[in-house]
Amino acid sequence: MGYTAWQIVGQWYRFRTKNEAKQDDTSLFTALNDAIAEAKADSDAPRKQAFGAEAAMSGHAHVFADFDKLPLPLRSAFVEDLANIAAWSGQASKAIKRKGDKPWASLSMKEKAGIVSALDWLSFDFVEAIKAEGAERADAWLWQLNEALPLLAAEPAGKEEPELALKALQDIFTPLEAELSSALDSRRREQLGDAKELVTQLSVAGATRNLQVLRTLLEELGLESDAAVTRVGELRTALETLTLDPATPGERNALTAAEAALEGEGVEAAEAVRTERMPGVDAAARAAYVAAVVRSASAPKMWALLRPGAGEGTTSNALGRQVSMVELLCSEFADCREGEAGADDLAAAIGRLAPRLLPKLDLLPKPPAPKPPPAPKPAPAPAPAAAPGPVVITEEGEEEEGVEEVLSDAVDAAVEEEDEEEVEEVDTSPGAAVAAALSTLAASSAAAADKVAAARSLSSALATAVAPLLLPLWTKGADRAPEVVVADTVKAAFRSVLKAHGVEVDEEPAERSTFSSDAHEAAGDASAKAQATALTDAEAAAAKARATALAAGLSARAAEAAEDNSPTVSSVRLLLARNGLKAALTDAASKSLPGPALAVAAAAALSLLRETELSALPADAAKAASSACQLAIQLSLASDCGRGLVLGPGLSLLLGRVDAFLDRLQAKAVAQKLQVKEAAEKLAKAAAEVEQGGEDAAALEVLAEAEAPVPLMKVKQAAGLVAELTSEGLVLLELPSAAYKKLATLRETVELLQPTMDGLVWQRATAALKELLGQLGPIGAAVDTRLSDVDVSGDESRRVLLVSLRASAIDIYRSLQEFLTAENEARPAMLADLRSAKEAAFGCKVDRKVAILEASRAKIDALQAARGRVAAAVARIPGADGAAEKLSVIDTAASEAGDAIRMYLQFVRLREHALGVVPPACPTDIEVPEFPSLSDTTAHHADDTVWMEMASASDDELNSWCRAGYELVARGQAAVLLIAGGSQGGQPRVTNDIGLPSTKCLLQLFAERLQRIQRLSTDCMFGMGTGVAHPMQWYILASAETEQPIKDCLSENMYYGLEPSQVHVFTADTTTPMLGEDGKVAMASPYKVARADGGSGEIFRALKSSGYLRHMSRAGVRCIDVHAMEDNAMARIADATFIGYCHSIGLDCAAKVIDPDAAQMTTYGYAMAAGVLPGGGAGEEGPVMDTLPGMMPAIGQYYMSMEWVRKVDKALEGKPLSMYKMVPAAVAAGAKGKLPGYAIQRSISDFVLGCSSLVSNQQWGAVVVEPSEEFAAVWGDLPFYAPDTETAAVEDLLLLHTSWVEAAGGALADGEEGVVEVSPLVSYCGEELEKVVEGKTFDGAYELDLQGFAPQPAQRTNVGPWLVPLAVGYAALAAVKLAKSVK
User: Fold this and answer.
1) Distance between CA atoms of 854 and 844, rounded to whole angstroms?
2) 399 — phi, psi (to 5°)?
3) pLDDT at position 484, please?
4) What angle do CA 610, 614, 616 make, to 5 degrees?
């Protein structure tokens, strides 16, 4: 009852306490919110942040982001968690320090308020301090194999350099774009100015204007095209009345003879054509005749099916017609000449039609008689011969299947029988003859005579065979019997009645001669038509030949007349003129020659007449001819000027004619002026002498008859325009008008181009210019052609002008081509390359991902390539020095950025490796650079490090150091610290079976080695069997998860023979905040900061916080043997030689290291992981290859003097963040799982190597040991280190033990593959095995003798003198107890 009451009271008290605490927290956070709200409302200095102001200022506002949303208990947990971070980072206020390890619920309201107030000023700037601290540690050359490379500590800060380099590169592009744009615009203005200056030579518009002015002047001077049209009638009348007959009979006879000779040439040419074409006329007629015969014979109607029930007359007539058609074909074939074209058609028709008659006429060849068989057998009865019947022909004239096939087979059989060597019987029937004839006609190799004979034979055979089948003709008159006449009359009347009623009746028998008459008649008509057509064509060809001959004769005579000036040619010129005028008038009469053309033709004809010919004519005729010639010339010139005075072909010739016309006008004007002057003088004289009226009248008559004066000024003006035009190369080119338009458009387009144009307008204008420039090829060809023509003609002035024009055209083309190339190719390509380079620069990212950095490197390479192209293009631009300089700066900046990214990429590759699970490894098939040897490394660091290579020490030195170590161990002045926080398979690593034959775990191995070293030390220092008076202290730093399992393992196994008081298993909070990939503190949840193990260097913090640092001091510990690799199966716990060496020479700290050659797989593996070993024997330059070679791998065993440990601890109180670095690790991010980030860690190797900033005058050493004797990691720590195989450590350990046994004189039954395990209780490192194994052979790996179960030989001890008194005392005590029991 009382107990129940006590339970009730206790529960009530706890509830009250908890409720009060909850109320206190509610009041606390309410007051906090009120205070923050009041601060925000302060008008003088308003607060912007909520709780966690200093965190927000240091870039960590996210830490407090969800504080207001947390429930009350989680707020308290959050505050307590941040208080621990404040204490860890050295920002602990008095309230936080007073809190210590006390739980939140036990704090007073005042203490809680002090803590909350302090956390508002909690800064997270320690992240940057740790980043900088880690960068200083990155060049450390000592690193523990199962920890991250010190080089990785530089990665967080290493991001800044490529970012700054990229920023510097990107900043250059803006001024570069301005410089390049200015240079391009300047070059555009320069090129455009040059082009505009050059195209001024393309004065198409000016020449066109001059031509228009010239046309106007010429119209005023009488060359008006409209007036010329009206005067054509006058010219026609003059030409029609003009006679060009010579005045003398001799000249008339010569003209007649010339005309006769010309006509004779024409007649001769026509007769030659007629003679040539007449055979073709006959051949055409014959071919038409044959084609018509074949067509009639092959007509479908001729071979159509007979209607059912047809009478004898119908059948007889049809068969007669068919036979007659084949006979006609044979007859015509026989009449054909050899090689005649129609012969093949006739033969083909015969071969196609004749076989259709053979069945009707019983002309099928008989089948050959069968050869007698080897054994006589009765021959089969021959089939009855089929009666001949009508041939079945389709509407298209094709025979149904069966007939031709049968005939063909029969013919083939007959031919085959002819080829046989032995012919028993020759077929002489008509059918055989017909088959032979058809075969001859079908054979292409048969002679023509044979084919003709075959045709005649076939025709005769058909006529003979068909005669009996035809009805006899009705006889007439006396030959007819009366009854026959009556019967025929009745039949005729009856047929007439039936025909009148539309009933079909049999035909009357017809005479055979009428069967082919229609075909003859049709063929004759076709032949006549063909002959008429051929004759018409022949006559047309003859007329054409006559005209051609006449024209050729006239041309030849014209050439002769032009070259020969003898009087005998006068008749020829007259003949040419008369024929020319006659042709012109004839064409004009037929309206095939327009009026202007008549003038041209007349002028050409009359211009042939020279003074000689004109003098031969009568005076009136000569004057009329001269006047008609002048009128024709003027009219033709007016017409040509009206339509041809434009830029184009023929303009030069036309201008020459105009120039000649103007010369005549000018001469005429001068003559008029002189004539008028003379008449005026006469009038003046007449006025003085009135009596001479006759002369006065003559002068008046001269003035009256004088023509209208020629405007000499206009003539001169027109002549000047002609001279100006003929001096221009464009006019001389005589290009097509379309080409001149293109040139004008080209000049107009160039002159319209302005650099200030809108972009789209500029593009359109340059596109049009490009199109025009592309069309200048034909114009250039025309220039060359014209130049060659002028050069041939020998006109030197024009040739020089055209050469100059050609050079100008080339200059224009080249200038415009360069301009367009710059605008359409060079400028866009340059700007595109610049844009590409800029996009590449701004597309680069510096991120902690290999793929992104590699892409950035590729972009930098692309940028460099684009920059190179831009630089090459800029070098061709005059005055672009500024842009070239900027491009050079970009080249340098890009190289620097590329190098920075490349080097940072090495860090990031190592970081990604550190975040993975694959240990570093290097392929054996690549060539790698040679890293510095051990001697090189020791020599390089000889100034600041004490080096000792155990293998090179003498036995005396080793014994001396070992004895010094034994003394420290025997007196309990040396302690062992084992870091055993790792787990494997859910259990602590040190308690797991590692696969030894004895099934011992690492913890047992370590304990037995410690037990053995204690016994060895005591025996050495105090004598054999003395016993351990001062047990060596063994501190095991476990994690929260492994602490209890290790304790349970030790207690269950009675501490493996050690005293429980000497074994200390403890844990301490050595976690540190984790950082995200952005370098900010990561949150595991809204109320808890993500944490990770602080690394092996946190032993100082753990020893102090757990109180074991004071415990060591109280226990008299002078030095500590630290083991940071818990899975090293060969670890020499409390190695007396190592401890004695370090202590005897006064080292503050030391590390066991191995030869770098022994860790090549790991060392080169890191280089492979960083991507700096491409093979070929050389590594890529960068931080990895600058740092990795020469690094010394530590195996996790360290010596520390207690004095040095206390100094470090004291220094860390003032600098709590010293020696920390950021190590890549996976961060637990709540619901997001684990994300890449960083753990804040310390390494013992960093303290040993680089603690000078904390402890002055530190002396440290490196002891080189054999890895085959002291290092065999069972599991390793991924991804930093892993053994070659899962059993490699056990195998190496057994091999080491086996070597001990063999060195001590033992042997194994399996001398090749046998191994044996030696217990640490029997031998620590191979000592004192001779008395156990000498002369023995061991069969298995687990031998009792080697596990400490063998009988031990007697040992000398100091226990002997005390043995008898002890025995007597024990006996007396036993007697007393016995006596008491009896009572």
Assistant:
1) 10
2) -80, 145
3) 57
4) 120
The predicted pLDDT at position 314 comes to: 56
Which DSSP symbol is given to 826?
Answer: I
The tokens describing 1039, both together, are 């994690």
Cα–Cα dist 292/818, whole Å: 74
The pLDDT tens digits of the residues spanning 31-43 come to: 777 777 777 666 5
Burial label for 693, CB within 10 Å (0-12, 13-18, 19+), is: exposed
Per-residue burial over 548-581, b = 16 or more CB atoms within 10 Å of its CB, e = otherwise: ebbeebbeebbeebeeeeeeebbbbbbbbbbbbb
User: Percent helix, strand and coil across the chain, each rounded to 5?
Assistant: 65, 5, 30
Secondary structure class of 143 (helix, strand, coil): strand
What is the Cα–Cα distance from 809 to 787, expressed in whole angstroms? 13
Question: CA angle, corner 188, sides to 184 and 192, nearest 5?
Answer: 175
pLDDT value, residue 205: 86
Residue type, 244: L
pLDDT of residue 792: 43
Q: Which residues contact 1377 (CB under 8 A, 6 or more apart)?
A: none
Instruction: Enter the DSSP assignment of 1029.
Output: S
What's the CA angle centered on 438, arms 434 and 439, to 5 degrees? 115
Q: To which H or E segment does residue 1206 belong? A: helix 1202-1214
pLDDT tens track for 874-913: 888 888 888 899 899 999 999 999 999 999 998 898 888 8
HSE, side-chain direction, 13 A CA sphere, residue 1115: 29
Q: What letter does residue 824 receive in the DSSP assignment?
A: I
Model pTM score:
0.64
* d(C-alpha 860, C-alpha 1198), whole Å: 47
Any bridge partners for residue 1029, and if so which?
A: none
H or E stretch including 1200? strand 1192-1201
Number of other CB atoms surrounding residue 716 within 10 Å: 13
How far apart are alpha carbons 489 and 480 in whole angstroms?
12
Given this model, what pLDDT does residue 482 score?
A: 63
CA 974/CA 1120 separation, integer angstroms:
6
Q: How many CA atoms lie within 13 A of 812 on its CB side?
A: 25
pLDDT confidence of residue 382 = 43
Enumerate the β-bridge partners of residue 1240. Answer: 1222
Q: What is the sign, positive or negative, of the torsion defined by CA atoms of 547, 548, 550, 551?
A: positive
Burial class (CB in 10 A: 0-12, 13-18, 19+), 1382: exposed
User: How, if at all, do strands 142-144 and 1234-1241 pair?
Assistant: unpaired
In which residue are the tokens 């099928």 written?
364
Report the alpha-carbon distance of residue 59 to residue 1107 in Å, rounded: 36
Residue type, 630: Q
d(C-alpha 607, C-alpha 631), whole Å: 12
Q: Please compute Rg for the chain using Cα positions.
A: 67
| Residues of the chain scoring pLDDT < 50 | 1-10, 12-18, 309, 375-408, 410-411, 413-424, 473-478, 503-505, 692-695, 792-793, 1353-1364, 1366, 1368, 1376, 1381-1383
pLDDT attached to residue 307: 53
Nearest in space to 985 (alpha carbons), one of 977, 993, 976: 993
Q: Give the whole-angstrom CA distance, residue 441 versus residue 352.
A: 11
pLDDT of residue 647: 84
How confident is the model at residue 477, as a pLDDT?
42
Query: Which of the 8 DSSP states describes residue 1058?
Result: S
φ, ψ (nearest 5 deg) of residue 11: -65, -40
Question: Based on the number of CB atoms within 10 Å of its own CB, is 1313 exposed (0-12), middle (13-18) or buried (19 or more)?
Answer: exposed
| Cα–Cα distance for residue pair 31/27, rounded to 1 Å | 6
Helix (H) or strand (E) holding 1071: strand 1071-1076
In this structure, which amino acid lies at residue 737? S
DSSP designation for 182: H
Backbone angles phi, psi at 144, to 5 degrees: -75, 130
* pLDDT computed for residue 1106 by the predictor: 93
CA dihedral (477, 481, 485, 486) positive or negative: positive
